[in-house]
């Protein structure tokens, strides 16, 4: 195989034979004295209707900088930085109809706003004397059901298409693996009908019309990279028996129809076509890839398209290079032909049918260095070369290649992020500054370094400053969501004066260990408004000190010492303010309760200067001429067992009180007649508490699992578990000796527990309810809708923004294997909103979002805030990031929190599931 790789390397101008790896520009050098400046690479080239002044082309690069399909204003700067007189710039891959949008942050060219955004880019490129080709595509099956649903809803549909929320492809052949943009399987696609093919053709044509209106000089059609047109070219995907499948000619038909349709607008001489004959992008693994693509290239050359853009064999996203070479050799392709050579030979021979047309030229793409680019053209392997990654990090790439200057390394971590960093922040070569000028400038001029999280550099040292123009922000709760909220707001500098009110004597929220719980659950507790009512304000002028109020305020946490986290360490704390130590080997990849308690306390105490301890917010009132401010009624518990009541006025309020303190116990007929003990898992600390007892655990959550499994060695056998539905991730966890699963409780009569199947349990000592907690906010009862079920917070947009009170936000409401970063991201968005840097959609749109969510989660409120599926979490991150579009469209100094859900977190969650099953003793 090494010999084959060497042959391929030579056939590709000695290029690297590793797919998408970081290859040093020093790996291969030109001979001493080689005339770089005189290279053909820098000579004019006639390409269709245009004459390029050099042959270095900017590739189509999807960089995830579009917001809801619209190109960012940053793209104007990005492309202008890289445009040169007589150079060719290719846009990112662009879709058409909103129903077919690939994923959030991909580009479309459908609406008037999208056309205008592209027009601004084209104008900037033309001002530099460069040409602009707009690449059009349709991703086909390279999406997934959740993404199709999202696109369909954003297009205004309330019902799915007739074939469901399925992607489109040539045939119903599913791509394996997980979609990185949604974290879910790709799903079986819908095989497009002939009528749908016509619809897609018209959409390509309409996008081309829009590109023409935006001023584009030409169109590049993406018929490679595994997207829809490429799916039609490969017989492992295209299994059709009509005129679009079954033969090389038929499989080429759809692509050629699209080309001919667009030629009606631009003419063939202003069209380029991107193909990837040697890769298996998205499992395009047809039996005749070279023959198929050579046939297509012949047809393109006869039509006289401007160029064919061929991805070289060293680029294979799904396989390493040796695996890919073996795959191609097994198809009967010679090592020498795994190169540009067959396409070069064909294009030398085939001329356009119209003799007035310029013959089609060949562009090569894939991993070029300065040296291999020059050799590829000088040795006549291609007419031009297309750069992607190195054009990202070198705005002045053309000059650097011509003069042999050092190239700036690219930063992969910023390829698909959303802000300016790694997009418009790379610098041109500056001989006077040398190497320092070649790096990535991660912040805008004069901006603070976000790596400090703003804490040391933003000037905020306490919560009592009086900077002119600063807004007063109150945060209720010094748990994780409250602390990361403070950190997120501080990233903006001195915009806000922050005060945190914490009802306990220490910070940390749910991650504070109370050896003995002081919570006294109600049995039942179905109504949070009666279980946790507001505390009445004493009569008199505030501040006022009175005897201690004795009403229960649920200050204890449900934490038990044997607990370990439900979320893998790298996901739980990754990219957040909270940087905790790595898990102990016996718990990895999860943190133990001890590590969490100590780590959270250590970080939280760094914010002591902002925190008012032993202080509960008992009421919030609207004040001001237009109710634009909020008055907080505060109760501080003093050491002498008195309370001091006071009040303060703030501009904004963050509610970060968590939802694991007020226990929920369902109403069961006859519960008041029960003669044994009643417990809720919030007060449970050890399985030894049920030594020699017969217990019935109600519920199937993680707490129910821990109570059951840890009580098993101590309690009488069997331990009964009453569950309505099995645990969604560990449905078999209770299938073991010593545990008996029973159905739900119908009613209780004295010592008898009647089950819904007619069975009766007797001799049970204790019923343990692991039935969750309430969302309850008694201090907000006067200014926002109540939450009578306690299972959902009504009137929230994206689980964060109070639809009815624009100066109130909730942090930490959304749950379901979400990282702490989700809460910090939420708070940062809120800071951007309240500082005037971004806007929310109109209130009516926010209400529509809530209504859609209610429909999606069904009649049970308890699922509203739970992002149960991997795709829910991934898309949620993207939706939050899109809200920050106005900020991301600027040279924003800090975009670290505005990143997509990392792919490695999806992997960690998957592998962590298996590890947690091992902890629970579930067989693999």
UniProtKB/TrEMBL annotation:
InterPro entries: Aldolase_TIM, FAD/NAD-bd_sf, Flavin_mOase-like, OxRdtase_FMN_N, Oye-like. It comes from the Eukaryota. Residues 40-406 form the NADH:flavin oxidoreductase/NADH oxidase N-terminal domain. The keyword Oxidoreductase applies. Keywords: FAD, Flavoprotein, Oxidoreductase. GO terms for molecular function: flavin adenine dinucleotide binding; FMN binding; N,N-dimethylaniline monooxygenase activity; NADP binding. This is NADH:flavin oxidoreductase/NADH oxidase N-terminal domain-containing protein. It comes from Exophiala bonariae.
């Amino acid at each position: 195989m090494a010999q084959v790789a060497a042959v391929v390397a030579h056939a590709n101008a000695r290029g690297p034979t590793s797919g998408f790896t970081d290859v040093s520009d020093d790996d291969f050098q030109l001979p001493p004295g080689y005339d770089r400046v005189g290279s053909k690479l820098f000579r004019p080239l006639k390409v269709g209707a245009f004459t390029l002044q050099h042959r270095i082309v900017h590739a189509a690069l999807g960089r995830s900088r579009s917001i809801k399909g619209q190109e960012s204003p940053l793209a104007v700067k990005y492309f202008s930085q890289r445009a040169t007189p007589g150079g060719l710039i290719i846009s990112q891959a662009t879709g058409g109809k909103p129903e077919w949008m690939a994923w959030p942050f991909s580009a479309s060219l459908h609406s008037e706003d999208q056309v205008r955004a592209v027009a601004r880019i084209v104008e900037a490129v033309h001002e530099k004397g460069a040409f602009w080709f707009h690449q059009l595509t349709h991703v086909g099956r390279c999406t997934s059901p959740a993404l199709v649903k999202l696109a369909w809803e954003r297009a205004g549909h309330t019902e799915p298409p007739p074939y469901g929320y399925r992607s489109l492809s040539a045939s119903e052949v599913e791509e394996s693996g997980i979609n990185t943009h949604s974290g879910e399987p790709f799903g079986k696609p819908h095989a497009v009908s002939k009528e749908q093919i016509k619809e897609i053709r018209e959409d390509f044509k309409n996008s081309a019309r829009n590109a023409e209106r935006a001023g584009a000089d030409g169109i590049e059609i993406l018929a490679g990279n595994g997207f829809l047109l490429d799916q039609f070219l490969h017989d492992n995907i295209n299994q059709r028996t009509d005129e679009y499948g079954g033969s090389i000619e038929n499989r080429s038909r759809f692509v050629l129809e699209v080309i001919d349709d667009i030629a009606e607008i631009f003419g063939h001489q202003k069209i380029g076509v991107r193909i990837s004959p040697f890769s298996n992008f998205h499992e395009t693994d047809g039996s005749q890839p070279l023959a198929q693509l050579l046939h297509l290239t012949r047809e393109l050359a006869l039509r006289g398209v401007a160029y064919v853009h061929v991805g070289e064999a060293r680029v294979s996203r799904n396989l390493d290079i040796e695996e890919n070479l073996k795959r191609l050799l097994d198809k009967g392709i010679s090592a020498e032909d795994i190169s540009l050579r067959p396409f070069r030979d064909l294009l030398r021979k085939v001329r356009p049918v119209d003799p007035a047309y310029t013959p089609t030229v060949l562009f090569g793409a894939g991993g070029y260095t300065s040296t291999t680019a020059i050799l590829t053209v000088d040795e006549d392997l291609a007419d031009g070369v297309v750069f992607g990654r190195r054009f990202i990090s070198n705005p002045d790439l053309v000059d650097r290649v011509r003069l042999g200057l050092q190239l700036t390394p690219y930063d992969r971590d910023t390829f698909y992020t959303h802000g300016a960093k790694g997009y418009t922040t790379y610098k041109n070569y500056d001989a006077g500054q040398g190497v320092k000028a070649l790096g990535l400038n991660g912040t805008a001029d004069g901006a603070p370094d976000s790596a400090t999280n703003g804490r040391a550099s933003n000037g905020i040292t306490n919560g009592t400053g009086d900077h002119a123009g600063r807004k007063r922000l109150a945060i209720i709760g010094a748990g994780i969501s409250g602390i990361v909220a403070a950190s997120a707001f501080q990233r903006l500098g001195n915009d806000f004066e922050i005060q945190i009110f914490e009802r306990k004597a220490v910070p940390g929220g749910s991650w504070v260990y109370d050896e003995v719980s002081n919570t006294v659950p109600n049995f039942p507790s179905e109504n949070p408004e009666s279980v946790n009512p507001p505390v009445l304000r004493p009569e008199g002028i505030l501040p006022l000190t009175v005897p201690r109020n004795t009403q229960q305020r649920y200050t204890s946490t449900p934490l038990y010492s044997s607990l370990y986290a439900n979320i893998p360490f790298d996901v739980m704390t990754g990219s957040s303010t909270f940087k905790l130590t790595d898990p102990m080997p016996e718990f990895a990849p999860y943190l133990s309760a001890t590590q969490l308690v100590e780590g959270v306390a250590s970080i939280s105490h760094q914010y002591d200067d902002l925190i008012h301890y032993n202080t509960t917010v008992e009421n919030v009132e609207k004040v001001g001429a237009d109710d634009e401010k909020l008055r907080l009624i505060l109760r501080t518990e003093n050491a002498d067992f008195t309370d001091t009541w006071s009040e303060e006025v703030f501009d904004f309020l963050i509610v970060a009180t968590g939802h694991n303190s007020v226990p929920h116990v369902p109403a069961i007929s006859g519960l008041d007649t029960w003669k044994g003990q009643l417990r809720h898992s919030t007060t449970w600390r050890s399985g030894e508490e049920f030594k020699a007892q017969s217990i019935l655990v109600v519920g199937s959550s993680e707490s129910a699992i821990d109570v059951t499994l840890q009580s098993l060695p101590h309690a009488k056998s069997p331990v009964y578990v009453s569950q309505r539905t099995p645990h969604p991730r560990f449905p078999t966890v209770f299938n073991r000796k010593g545990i008996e699963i029973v159905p739900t409780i119908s009613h209780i009569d004295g010592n008898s527990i009647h089950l819904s199947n007619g069975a009766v349990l007797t001799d049970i000592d204790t019923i343990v309810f692991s039935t969750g907690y309430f969302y309850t906010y008694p201090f907000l009862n006067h200014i926002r809708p109540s939450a009578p079920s306690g299972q959902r917070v009504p009137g929230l947009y994206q689980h964060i923004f109070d639809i009815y009170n624009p100066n109130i936000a909730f942090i930490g409401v959304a749950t379901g294997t979400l990282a702490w970063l989700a809460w910090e991201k939420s708070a940062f968005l809120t800071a951007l909103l309240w500082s005037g840097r971004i806007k929310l959609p109109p209130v009516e749109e926010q209400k529509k979002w809530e209504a859609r969510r209610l429909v999606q989660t069904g009649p049970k409120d308890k699922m509203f805030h739970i992002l149960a599926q991997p795709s829910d979490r991934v898309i949620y991150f993207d939706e939050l990031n899109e809200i920050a579009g106005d900020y991301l469209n600027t040279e924003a100094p800090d975009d670290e929190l505005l990143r997509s859900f990392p792919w490695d977190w999806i992997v960690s969650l998957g592998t962590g599931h298996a590890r947690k099953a091992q902890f629970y003793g579930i067989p693999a």
